[in-house]
């Protein structure tokens, strides 16, 4: 299977008070294959979100290299990197970060308008199809105060998919949702992955991680363990998968 994302000896440091260097990521090496669903877990402060931002090009690594589809993106100028993120990557965050001055449909189409890969008519039609698939098409003309948290997260997924990305990143994408809505969002992500989109997310939630194919565990800025639990399908006993993953996490001290 083709490697779509790779980190080689990635380090990330920040300068804190009195010019002291604080290292957050320590010699990260990983590969994500096309079509995989990968989850990163670990205690708070272990570097999970920092890892996601650095390998997606949202932040600049201090040392090492990041490759996306064979291209060394850690060496790209910011303008080219921003264009690549816009066209090839989608992002979902814990909170929707939708623009208050736009209705929900306009929030979905905005990044596609910026990419200018299709006409506005084609983009709006695709946005409405996505919103219908997510069950939120009736909210197209609504603003963000007229939708629930779960509905706003579905809108965020539509926004992340509008440019048909090769990979979808999520930073605690269900962290602000209740258990029922979390399950609904994960069903959506399962379907997106089954259709061929690579997914990589950060989460604290076993019920979220258990939907993925591979779980990476971070501790003190390092990737220290990996659990390959195989592709999830709806015929499997989800409780059995949760038991396997929970036992493995306990072994890691989580």
Task: Describe the model.
The protein is of the alpha/beta class and 254 residues long. It has one domain (3-251): P-loop containing nucleotide triphosphate hydrolases (Rossmann fold, 3-Layer(aba) Sandwich). Helix content is 36%, strand content 26%. It has 8 helices and 10 strands. A 6-stranded mixed β-sheet has the order 6-7-8-3-9-10, with helices on both faces. β1 and β2 form a beta hairpin. α3 crosses α4 (120-133). The protein is globular. The model has no long low-confidence stretch (mean pLDDT 95).
Question: What class do helices, strands and sheet pairing give?
Answer: alpha/beta
Rg calc: 18 Å
The portion of residues assigned to helices is: 25-40%
Strand ordering within the main sheet? 6-7-8-3-9-10
Q: What is the oligomeric state here? A: single chain
Mean pLDDT figure: 95
Beta-strand residue fraction:
25-35%
Family: Belongs to the ABC transporter superfamily.
Keywords: ATP-binding, Nucleotide-binding, Transport
InterPro entries: AAA+_ATPase, ABC_transporter-like_ATP-bd, MacB-like_ATP-bd, P-loop_NTPase
Protein name: ABC transport system ATP-binding protein
Write the SSE topology.
Layout lengths: L2 E13 L5 E13 L3 E5 L6 H8 L7 E6 L2 E2 L5 H11 E5 L10 H12 L4 H14 L15 H13 L5 E5 L7 H16 L3 E5 L3 H4 L4 E6 L2 E7 L9 H14 L3
Parallel strand pairs: 3-8, 3-9, 6-7, 7-8
Antiparallel strand pairs: 1-2, 1-4, 4-5, 9-10
Helix pairs in contact: 3-4, 3-5
Protein name: ABC transport system ATP-binding protein
Organism: Paenibacillus amylolyticus
Family: Belongs to the ABC transporter superfamily.
